[in-house]
């Protein structure tokens, strides 16, 4: 299986922030969730992948094309929704439907009409009168209507109500039914990604903390409630995160490093992320 | 390119009615009183501001960032704005010429009027657009207003001299004088592309 996205040591320095040596792989046909707090470097990573920013070091390829070259052809095959979709306030869905065929060679009026119908968007209402949810749905409809092979979604589900998030999730799951279709979705709302993703990456302060298959991740890590004495007796390398409370400890642990017979509870991606980030701060 | 022009047309229709009203008003004002030929050309000076407002609108709505995610290159994005200025000029110049012929026969030949049109409509944007594509519309617009204040004073003085018949440009010379704004506009276009490619969005 080839990779839709591949980065090696991708680095970008700003005055007050650096994305440091990012190594990512997204196999074709999969969904990768890029989880990170605000300012972790998710948008920077996506901008680098689109060639909007030039990296200071490292390499990356998207759909087999090196990002240091001309990206215009490969952008035909990428659907993008940024945190702010970036559409003119006074334009309507109908007007955008007339503009886009000149922007994308592979624009499909039928696909766009289907998306608009499915997402229940009004055709003649000005974009500025749209709610946040409607704006993101329109961004997604635009991203899906030019036969993309890859979707890059930057905080596309943030600020949406549960009903809209559910319809967006359905749309993305439909998209990835085709084995050649891949999605990179970044969010700081972990629960959204937990439902969708095949792979999970944690980004914290510009550094990749973890990149693993979701099922393997949930299999590999567990939640352990025990006394402080029991926690202190564990192999330090087994403990990913630790929270002491008056009744003992809550630990995120690597299951294979625990003494045989130790029983753990399943851990959620959100718990894993929060524990790892807090551990890093301490 | 066609999609970008269409987008600007839609935005212009809704956003910039006030500008269009000002242009029409000042042109109409040129019929009031005598020696008001300055107002005939005022619309031409305003045309680049219409375009700058469109660029500013693109920045406010993050349309420029959206375009970065599409196959549209920065070269195309810049070229479209230069082309739009020419299209606006193409639409408005006949109006200027008709008004000029109707009321300002003492100002020289129509060719001379075309020459003035070209200078006003091309020279100003050719100077200001590279600033805007390099710095963004807000900083660029400020530079433009400073520039336009000085330029308009010079033009008003020049037109006033023409009103008094102090100098008339011979037609042969007018043809040659058409070249500099066109060449300057073309150089400005290439410069804007180079500067915009370097700008971080």
Walk me through the structure.
With 282 residues, chain A is of the alpha/beta class. Chain A folds into two domains: 203 residues, 3-Layer(aba) Sandwich (Rossmann fold), CATH 3.40.50; 65 residues, no CATH class. Chain A has ten helices and 14 strands. In chain A, the strands form three sheets. Chain A has a six-stranded mixed β-sheet, with helices on both faces. Chain A has a four-stranded antiparallel β-sheet with strand order 2-1-4-5, covered by helices on one side. In chain A, strands 12-13-11-14 form a four-stranded antiparallel β-sheet. In chain A, helix 6 links the parallel strand 7 and strand 8. The two termini of chain A are 39 Å apart. The mean pLDDT of chain A is 87. The longest helix of chain B is centred in the middle third of the chain and has 30 residues. Chain B has one domain. Chain B is an all-alpha fold and 201 residues long.
Structure annotation, total helices of chain A? 10
Largest sheet of chain B: none
Walk across the major sheet of chain A and give the strand order.
6-7-8-3-9-10
Task: Output the CATH class name of the largest domain in chain A.
Answer: Alpha Beta
Q: Quaternary status of these chains?
A: heterodimer
Total number of domains of chain A: 2
Globular, elongated, flat, extended or rod-shaped: what is the shape of chain B? globular
Short descriptors:
heterodimer, A: 282 residues, alpha/beta, Rossmann fold, 2 domains, six-stranded mixed β-sheet, 14 strands, B: 201 residues, mainly alpha, 0% strand, globular
């Amino acid at each position: 299986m080839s990779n839709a996205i591949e980065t090696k040591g991708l680095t970008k320095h700003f005055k007050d922030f650096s994305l440091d040596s990012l190594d990512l792989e997204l196999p074709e046909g999969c969904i990768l969730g890029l989880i990170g707090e605000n300012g972790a470097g998710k948008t920077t990573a996506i901008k680098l992948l689109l060639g909007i920013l030039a990296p200071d070091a490292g390499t990356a390829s998207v759909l087999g094309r090196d990002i240091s070259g001309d990206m215009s052809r490969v952008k035909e095959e990428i659907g993008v929704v940024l945190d702010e979709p970036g559409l003119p306030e006074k334009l309507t869905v109908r007007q955008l439907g007339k503009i886009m065929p000149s922007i994308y060679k592979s624009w499909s009026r039928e696909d766009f009409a289907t998306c608009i119908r499915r997402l229940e968007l009004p055709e003649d209402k000005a974009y500025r009168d749209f709610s946040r949810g409607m704006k993101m749905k329109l961004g997604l409809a635009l991203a899906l209507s030019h036969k993309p092979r890859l979707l890059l979604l930057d905080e596309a589900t943030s600020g949406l109500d549960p009903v809209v998030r559910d319809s967006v999730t359905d749309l993305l799951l439909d998209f990835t039914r085709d084995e050649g279709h891949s999605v990179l979705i970044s969010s700081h709302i972990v629960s959204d990604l937990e439902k969708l993703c095949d792979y999970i990456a944690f980004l914290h302060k510009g550094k990749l903390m973890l990149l693993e298959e979701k099922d393997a991740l949930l299999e590999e890590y567990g939640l352990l409630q025990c006394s402080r004495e029991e926690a202190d007796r564990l192999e330090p390398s087994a403990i990913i995160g630790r929270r002491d409370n008056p009744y003992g400890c809550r630990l995120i642990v690597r299951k294979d490093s625990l003494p045989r017979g130790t029983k753990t509870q399943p851990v959620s991606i959100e718990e894993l992320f929060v524990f790892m980030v807090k551990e890093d701060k301490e | 390119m066609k999609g970008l022009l269409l987008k600007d047309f839609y935005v212009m229709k809704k956003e910039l009615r006030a500008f269009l009203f000002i242009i029409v008003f000042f042109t109409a004002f040129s019929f009031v009183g005598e020696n008001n030929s300055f107002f005939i050309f005022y619309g031409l000076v305003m045309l680049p501001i219409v375009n700058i407002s469109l660029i500013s609108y693109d920045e406010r709505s993050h349309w420029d960032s959206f375009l970065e995610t599409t196959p549209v290159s920065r070269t195309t994005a810049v070229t479209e704005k230069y082309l739009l200025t020419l299209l606006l000029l193409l639409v408005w110049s006949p109006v200027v010429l008709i008004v000029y012929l109707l009321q300002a026969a003492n100002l020289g030949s129509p060719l001379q009027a075309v020459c003035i049109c070209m200078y006003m409509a091309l020279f100003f944007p050719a100077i200001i657009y590279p600033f805007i594509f390099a710095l963004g519309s807000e900083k660029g617009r400020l530079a433009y207003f400073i520039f336009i204040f000085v330029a308009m004073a010079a033009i008003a003085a020049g037109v006033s001299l023409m009103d008094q018949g102090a100098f008339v440009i011979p037609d042969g010379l007018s043809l040659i004088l058409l070249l500099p704004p066109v060449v300057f506009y073309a150089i400005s276009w290439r410069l804007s592309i180079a500067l915009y490619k370097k700008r971080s969005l």
